[in-house]
Design brief:
Blueprint (H helix, E strand, L loop, with lengths): L2 H22 L3 H4 L5 H10 L8 H10 L9 H7 L1 H22 L3 H10 L4 H6 L1 H20 L3 H34 L1 H4 L3 H12 L11
Length: 215
Amino acid sequence: MSRASKMQFNLATAQRDIFDWYEKNEYKIDAGAIFSPEWQGRLIEWSKEFDSGSMSDIREDIKLHEKNPEELALERLFQAYPIVAFSLWYVLQSCYELDGIICGTTLQNRTNIAEWRTWRPFRYLLSQDIARCWQKNLHDLFSEATSCTDKFEKEKIDNRLQRISQAIRPLKEAVATLTSVFEGRKKELVYIFWMLKVVQENVDKRWPPMAGALY
């Protein structure tokens, strides 16, 4: 079997593992995302650069990234832990959606948002700049909602708050799904539980106190 054929087989196996886990745990809607253009495009891109080293070496390297999580690439995580990688990717997609609604009100912010999407997962999640952007824009939005007297502007603000509220639900579900992956595979994932802690803590940090009613 050629290296290319072997890689295709591994990708197919990883995809099946993801689908089976999501189906077994009744996340059937999320499971369909493995066929999305975005995910498929990533797999095609990643397959050109997968590490040919042993799985034990790759997993040991990932374990050591607890000291420098910002440098861990999603494709490397996928190669060793495909279900974790897919679930983390789902969290990121939900965050990206909220980036646009919360922060995408200026051209500069929209430029920044496009750049954020190119970052490695934990660089993105640990970014204080992104957390501050969410906090400032949410603070300003709630202040406007309180003080605004113009009916038309008030309606625009309410619509934006509603969009944020609607986008929060998929994010909370994505974090809950990632948590269930770790809880359900504790023995296998014991050395990378630091990832779950990073996700949970840094998603929570993005919300100012006044946004508690939303989140």
